[in-house]
């Protein structure tokens, strides 16, 4: 039962499940059918509506487009109508105006024609008119006659041309006939060739078949080639794409590399600029420190001299009361001369001893320099000792080598002995001839012939002088050969006496053999002389060729440089305005003329040298001719000689070839220094003579002492020169002309010592003649340092003189004087109850300052001061003017106003104009006036808002914070409409400038002296051309 129930339940449940599944399938199918049917209905409805809307839109858009087209068409037609109407109106207006203008022209021309007609009628009535007409007719007839002649000439020319053409035509017809015959022959050959055409056609058929085969093969090959071409094109396109990608990557990498390189170069350049600036600052600081030390040393030296004078006065002044005479009166006095090389101790007599309380204290700088000099001398002594040891070793080595080679020395000794014997024999012959001539002259000739004025006497005397000259030359050669023989024998002598005996006997035997074999020796000597002659000729030709090649290269290089310079000047002139272009062209023309003048002077010197050489050759030839005339005179009787007329003899003056040196005696040194330095007046020398003449004379004297290899003379001359210059500057140190004169001469003397020192760095600016004048025996580098220090001291003294002259002028001329009239007429509002210095007229004006500057500049130019040194002096002068003016402006409240700022700016512009006129804008003088310019601008600008404060902070970069605040505090309004600077504005300025790192000093250091440099400036003046004027009183020196 239970099983039956379970089975029944199973079948029932299965039936119910199948029914439920069937129901689910039917519902799912019904929903799908509904979905597709609803979709169909909705899509059909959408399509109908979409088609209707599209039709409506098309009709609407067409309607709108047609309306727009009609509007554009109407506008276009309206524009055309307007164009036509406006054109018609313009043409009608133009025609009316033209008609009116033509009518006016006609009326005016008719009026002028009537006037001309009246004049012609009046002229026609006069007789002169007929004459003029006839003259015109005659001229016309002459012109017509000339035309007829010209036409006849042309006709003749045409006839000649026709005849030439006929000849050409005949020649051409003959050529054509020959061509016709040749064509006939070619026609016959063509008939023969027709038979060959048939065979050729058969060959053509065969060739056509071959051509078809080749075409088919060609098609196959072309198809294969097309496929290959497509493949290669695809491959090439792929490679191109890859190449473009690689190029892009390469460009990106290159761009990155270039950027990195630029960044690196920029950073390196910035670092380099910063380092160079720092080095320049350090160098200027060192120069300033060194020059300050020199200044201090000169001050101490002056004090030392003053103390010495006081001590001498104290010694020589008699004391009241008991006098004590010492038994010993001798003591040593040390006199220090400012030099790095010389420190001499001189004994001076008659000086009494003093107690220890009154002795002069020891100068530490002097002691340290002397100690340093002692160490230098010890080092030099050690170096000299090492060199001496090395030289001794070299001598020992050379002696050892000479002992190893005695045979070569023996041959040379034989040759020298032969030459000596030959010279002695020639000397004997010359003596015999001289004696014979004297005997013949004294015995055979008549007294009239041997008279002093007779021609035979002159000829014989000339021969006698020539023979004596040759005799002296032979004597000198014999002495030289003997000395050489002695030195060689002493060098060859060995240590053992036996060897010396054997060697000497061998040498004597060899000499005896050579005496026996005289012919061989003469042949050997002749060959040697010919070889020497050939070698000398070859060397002279080689030197001349090299000189010509070097000259041509130099000319080519100079022409290239001149061409480049001309192109640069042309490009610069094209960029300049017309006025500046004219000035530049004039300057260029002046420089070109000066260069040509210098070249012509050099050519003139060369021609003078050639003239001197030719004169010397002429003298030699004259001697030879005189000898020939003597030979002819011996064959003529004395009577014939007396009857002949005596021609006058010109005695030529010997022209000396000066070497650029001046010779003087040792005892004349003090006289030279006295006349050339101590008693010389700069004004007369600067006006009448060449600049730097004392320096040139002193250097020429130094050159002669160097030429003589006299170190004591060089040392004493340079020492006395330096001491004398110091004495002159101590005696007349307040005179600007004296200080400027000796500054320029000291610098020129220093430049001469550098130029002719023989160092390559200084010789490259010299000519070949100037290089020959270089010092040969002494190195004066330490004296150059001494002269440089002396020049620094003179420069500092010059600056002090300038400051003393300019200081009383600056305040009155730059601040107090009213250069612009009417600006400072109103007193500042804060100063109405007291008198001001603005109203007072000072004794000096700006014009007086400019006149003083002009006088300084003209004096320095007259003295021949270096242009770079003049720039440094001008820079120092302008610094003094700016510093003193600014300091007085900061200390005076009545000067801090708007009008005074305008006055100061105008005065500074006048100083800048002076710099521009003197071509000194690049001297750095304008930069020294920058604080004063900014102070004047600060007085003129607005001082209210924050923008004004920012502008002031950016503008006043040369002024310190304390100076800016001081000017703002002292600012006083000119009238009631202006206002004082508010405290808040000054505080904002201080807040903005608090990060600025500058010195807290208010006033500028007016005593500050810039470090001076002396750039090398070589002179183009040749030393041998310098003439010593008689006004200097130097007759005791002579040119060499």
TrEMBL record:
<dbReference type="Pfam" id="PF25966">
    <property type="entry name" value="Myo5a"/>
</dbReference>
<dbReference type="Pfam" id="PF00612">
    <property type="entry name" value="IQ"/>
</dbReference>
<keyword id="KW-0677">Repeat</keyword>
<dbReference type="InterPro" id="IPR058662">
    <property type="entry name" value="Myo5a/b_dom"/>
</dbReference>
<dbReference type="InterPro" id="IPR052072">
    <property type="entry name" value="Vascular_dev_regulator"/>
</dbReference>
<keyword id="KW-0175">Coiled coil</keyword>
<feature type="coiled-coil region">
    <location>
        <begin position="367"/>
        <end position="443"/>
    </location>
</feature>
<protein>
    <submittedName>
        <fullName>Myosin VA</fullName>
    </submittedName>
</protein>
<dbReference type="InterPro" id="IPR027417">
    <property type="entry name" value="P-loop_NTPase"/>
</dbReference>
<dbReference type="Pfam" id="PF01843">
    <property type="entry name" value="DIL"/>
</dbReference>
<dbReference type="InterPro" id="IPR002710">
    <property type="entry name" value="Dilute_dom"/>
</dbReference>
<feature type="coiled-coil region">
    <location>
        <begin position="127"/>
        <end position="310"/>
    </location>
</feature>
<feature type="domain" description="Dilute">
    <location>
        <begin position="719"/>
        <end position="995"/>
    </location>
</feature>
<feature type="coiled-coil region">
    <location>
        <begin position="535"/>
        <end position="624"/>
    </location>
</feature>
<dbReference type="InterPro" id="IPR000048">
    <property type="entry name" value="IQ_motif_EF-hand-BS"/>
</dbReference>
